Every structure is written in structure tokens, then in C-alpha cells.
Amino acid sequence: MHKIILKIAQLSDWTLVLLTVFLAEILTLTFSSIQSLLLWGHIPKHIVFMGAVDAFLVALPLSYAMILIVRFSARTHLEKEVLETEVGERIRVEEGLQHSIRQLQLVTDKVSDVFWTMDRSGALIYVSPSVQRMFGYTPEEADGKTLGELLRPESLEIALRAFKERLRREETGDPDNSEHRYELMARRKDGSTFWAEVTSSPMRDSEGRLTGFLGITRNIHERKLAEEQLKNSEEQLRASLGQKNILLHEVHHRVKNNLAIISALLSLQVRQTGDQKLKELCTESQSRIHAMAYVHEQLYMQDDMETVNFESYAEGLAYYLRHTYRLSENDVSLSTDIESITLGLNILIPCGLILNELITNSLKHALTDTGGLRISIALHQSGDGLVNLIMGDNGPGLPEGLDPFSENKGLGMNIVNQLVGQLEGDMKVRNNEGAEFSITFPLKETHTRISRLS
Questions:
Q1: Residue 24 pLDDT > 60, yes or no?
Q2: Homologous superfamily assigned to 330-454
Q3: pLDDT digits (tens, 9 = 90+) for 109-152
Q4: How confident is the model over 429-446, as pLDDT tens digits?
Q5: What is the C-alpha radius of gyration for the chain, rounded to an integer number of angstroms?
Q6: What's the CATH fold of domain 114-219?
Q7: SS3 107
Q8: Degrees (nearest 5) of the Cα angle 85, 89, 94?
Q9: Residue 159 near residue 147, CB atoms below 8 Å
Q10: Residue 88 has what DSSP assignment?
Q11: By CB neighbour count within 10 A (0-12 exposed, 13-18 middle, 19+ buried), where does 445 fall?
């Protein structure tokens, strides 16, 4: 019957009118047959015709009633289908939402961080179950807690200041939607405290009005303790380094003073002796002592007590030797081409002693009566980790057949050869408009620490 009604509902209005006529004919024939059977010969024919008309009049409103019933039934059926579709869709959405909630709850239950939401008054309205592990409160106990119940007084002041500033900006039409992060001292249910990192962001309704805050609280107590220990260790290290620097300053100062005392004793010896050869030997020994003492003096006068700028050292050493031999700038001039390199103590003292011997040798043998001696010093570092030290003059050069590597060529050259070997280097000697000594040695960590000057 239900299917028949739906079929009728799909018919047009003209079809329904024809259906009405059809129903009328059926009723008419029925009435006529009844009248013929029951009253034939007893009732006039016009009465029978009137019965047919009556049947049509009965069928007409009956057909319209059927139209209304069919249409109402069809509309009810369609609405039921739409309703069932909407309900099914809502059930699927709700099931998906419940699944998402279960997944989120699973995450919040497992993580150690506490997820929370707070209203505008500063009271908690949701706390994840991990609050019990961190604070000792169950979620039900933590519900409604305020900042004053969860923070130490000094941290509460910081949090309230930030909280009030957010509300103030909200009221003045300058809302703060950024994420804020604080390191605060939190308080557990049992009264114990721990360091917590609190991250908060504003919550807003569909119209953009501030409804509260949501955030995450993380226990960073172990990290803060480690940072504090590291800070204390750094302070202790700085204190130790400061004491070391003081001691090193004192060591360099005392070494310099002791070498100065030795040099002064040699000066007294020179004044008291009439032997010219002895005077020369004492003077050369004094210059060697000064070459070492000058290194300690340079280190003592600066904060970095590990390295010395070689350019300033070479110029100072050359000036001292010129003064020792009572020569003026007109007699001896100095030109330098030294890369901005700083050398450590273990490599600077051998280089200083080498320079001392080579400059002394030039002052003794290359200087003529007319003066005009020019001494050049160059120092460069190559890309393969080698350092090249070149010292030359414009004197007459080395005599033919002179072997500077022979052990019988004087104390000065013997000292130079031994120091070059100490540096694991190589020395080349040639006449190039005067004597030229080129020494190449590797710059190793065991020798020095090198750094470019800015």
C-alpha cells in the first residue's frame, strides 16, 4: 500500500483529475448496477441518472482528499529520509569528535606536562590528569585553583603583573595575542617547590572577545639546578682563571726582574774589566738576556698572557740593540713586513733569540763607517701551516766560502742553528744585496697558539 501511495504521489495533477473521473465512473456503474438489481422497473430512469451524478459528485471530493493524503504521505516520507540522513551525519560527526577527544585525552594522560585553561579571573577551569604527578592535586582538586595557590610569592608577583597587563591591553583595545613564556617557582600540594616553565596564550570566543587563557606547565627543576651548578662552576672557573692570571703576571714580572738583575751584574762586570774581548762577550750576553726578558715584559703588560704580537716585539728588540751599540737612526734603519700574527711563549723566545743573534751579527759586521745600514725583517704564514722568518741587511754580505752551519763559526751562529732545530725548521742563507737568512718552520700546537689580530 505504501508503494502504491508513493506511485500516486509522483503523478501530475491532470493524471489525478482523470483518476477522479475514473473513480466516478466506477461508483456510477456500481450504483447503477445496484439500482438495476434492486429497483429495476420500480424506480424511474431519471432517478437512476441522478444516482450516477451523485456518484460523480461523491468521487470528486474523494479524489481531492486522496491527493491531499498522498501528498502528505509523500512529504512525510521525504522529510523522514532527510531527517534520517541528518541524524546519521550528526552521529558520525559526534563519533569522530569522541574519537578525537579520546585521542587527546590519551596524549594528555601520558605526557608529563600539564595542560590547563583558565578564566579571566585567574581560576583554573580545566587541568589535565598529569597535574597529580606534578603538583600532587587530582584534576578535581585543582579545578578552581588560583595562581596564588600554585605559585611562590615572588613568582606570583611576576605572573600577576603579566596577567593584569594582558587584561589592561584588552580593555584599551590593544589585545595581546602572542604566546608568553615564564620561568616561575611553583608550589605543590605538600608545600614543596619546584621550577616550572609556563607557556600561555589567550582564548577567545567566536566574536573575538577574551574568555580566558590556555597553557602548558613543564617541570624544569632539574634543568634549573644544572644551570645553577654550571653557573657556579663558571664563576669558580673565572675566579680560578683570575687567580691564575694574577700568578702568571707575577711570574712574568719576577722572571723579567731576575733577568734584569743578571743583565745588571754583567753591566757591572763590563765596567770593571779592561779586557775588550770580555766586554764584547758580556754585551752579547746582555742582549740575549734582554731578548728573553723582553718577551716576559710584553706578556706582563697585556691581559692575554699567552701570546705576543711579533711585529711590536721585533721592533722593540731592534731598537734595544741599536741603543746598546750606541747607534742612531741615521746609522741603522729598520723596515718590517710582518703579518699580523701573535706567537706563543714557546715559539716567541726561540724566534726572539734568533733575531737577536742575526741583528747583532749585522750591527757588528755589516755596518760601515759611512753608516746607512738598513735591516729588514719579514714574517709570513703560508697556507700549509708553515711560517717563514726572513732577516736581511744591505751590507757587504757573507764572505765567499763561509759556511754558517759550521760549528766553528762562533757562538752566535751555533745558537741560531740549535734554535732552528728546536723549532723543527730549516734555514737558508744567501747574499741578496747583502746577507739574507730565511728560516721556515711549522707552526704546531705544541709550539704556540696563533690568532689573527682584528
A1: no
A2: Histidine kinase-like ATPase, C-terminal domain (3.30.565.10)
A3: 667 889 999 999 889 999 988 899 999 999 999 999 998 899 99
A4: 888 888 899 999 988 644
A5: 55
A6: Beta-Lactamase (3.30.450)
A7: helix
A8: 150
A9: yes
A10: H
A11: exposed
